[in-house]
TrEMBL record:
<feature type="binding site">
    <location>
        <begin position="7"/>
        <end position="15"/>
    </location>
    <ligand>
        <name>ATP</name>
    </ligand>
</feature>
<keyword id="KW-0808">Transferase</keyword>
<dbReference type="GO" id="GO:0005737">
    <property type="term" value="C:cytoplasm"/>
</dbReference>
<keyword id="KW-0418">Kinase</keyword>
<dbReference type="InterPro" id="IPR003136">
    <property type="entry name" value="Cytidylate_kin"/>
</dbReference>
<protein>
    <recommendedName>
        <fullName>Cytidylate kinase</fullName>
        <ecNumber>2.7.4.25</ecNumber>
    </recommendedName>
</protein>
<dbReference type="InterPro" id="IPR011994">
    <property type="entry name" value="Cytidylate_kinase_dom"/>
</dbReference>
<dbReference type="Pfam" id="PF02224">
    <property type="entry name" value="Cytidylate_kin"/>
</dbReference>
<keyword id="KW-0547">Nucleotide-binding</keyword>
<dbReference type="GO" id="GO:0036431">
    <property type="term" value="F:dCMP kinase activity"/>
</dbReference>
<keyword id="KW-0963">Cytoplasm</keyword>
<comment type="similarity">
    <text>Belongs to the cytidylate kinase family. Type 1 subfamily.</text>
</comment>
<dbReference type="GO" id="GO:0005524">
    <property type="term" value="F:ATP binding"/>
</dbReference>
<dbReference type="InterPro" id="IPR027417">
    <property type="entry name" value="P-loop_NTPase"/>
</dbReference>
<dbReference type="GO" id="GO:0006220">
    <property type="term" value="P:pyrimidine nucleotide metabolic process"/>
</dbReference>
<feature type="domain" description="Cytidylate kinase">
    <location>
        <begin position="3"/>
        <end position="211"/>
    </location>
</feature>
<keyword id="KW-0067">ATP-binding</keyword>
Length: 216
């Protein structure tokens, strides 16, 4: 079984996805973390990301890391996804403001999208895949698809609680990311839409689970 959960930035995707995956007893895969990891690797090596020419050097870097036996390695653990490289857990470095600011530019590079998609498709179901285009592009034949959405204001208010920033600037940054991500974020036509703008996390998880068969 494959379940996909897509949605806009800060819509609660990863919290909902991990709760649903735990209830179903399947691993969840965060595709965003792979985009973040590639962005982090590029920043570490001083590679620019904001031009179409960025693609070649970035793919060369990812390929060279694989050849050297030190690939970016997504580990879908029950307590959350981690990315390891060269024997080191780099997950914490993937949620910095610097990675946030560059990841959408990297994510429009078609070669990087193919690289991420190939990593995900190499995994054996059952699993729950979370991201932007899991139901529309990567796993169009998934058994169950969900799309989470909420207004930019509600999402900004939630982020502010997590990170102690002011709501107007967080809302503006989220809207900018929405605009940059719009191309890959179109919902699959057969996705079930869930509004995460109100309701607690357990209520939203229950709403998703109500559409899914009980775990065996
Ligand atoms: O999910 P998260 O916010 O961590 O994703 C980070 C970024 O990765 C998104 O803003 C988007 O640019 C990109 N992304 C994507 N396609 C996906 C998952 C994430 O383009 N399936």
């Amino acid at each position: 079984m494959i379940v996909t959960i897509d949605g806009v930035a800060a819509s609660g995707k990863s919290s909902v996805a991990s709760g649903v995956a735990r209830a179903l007893h399947v691993p969840y895969l965060s595709s965003g973390l792979l985009y973040r990891a590639a962005t982090w690797a590029a920043l570490q090596h001083g590679l620019p990301l904001d031009t179409p020419e960025a693609e070649g050097p970035l793919l060369d870097l990812l390929h060279a890391q694989t050849q050297a036996g030190t690939p970016l390695d997504l580990r879908p653990l029950p307590e959350g996804n981690q990315v390891w490289q060269a024997g080191r857990d780099i997950s914490e470095a993937l949620h910095t403001a610097e990675v946030d600011a560059h990841v959408s530019a990297a994510a429009v590079l078609p070669g990087l999208r193919e690289w991420v998609n190939a990593q995900l498709r190499a995994l054996t179901p059952p699993f729950l895949a979370e991201g932007r285009d899991m139901g529309s592009t990567v796993f169009p034949h998934a058994d169950h698809k969900f799309y989470l959405h909420a207004s930019a204001r509600v999402r900004a208010e939630r982020r502010v609680k997590e990170r102690a920033q002011d709501v107007d600037s967080v809302e503006a940054a989220l809207k900018l990311r929405d605009e940059r991500d719009v191309r890959q974020s179109a919902p699959a036509p057969d996705a079930i839409h869930i509004d995460t703008g109100s309701g607690t996390l357990p209520e939203i998880i229950a709403q998703v689970l109500a559409h899914l068969p009980a775990p065996s």
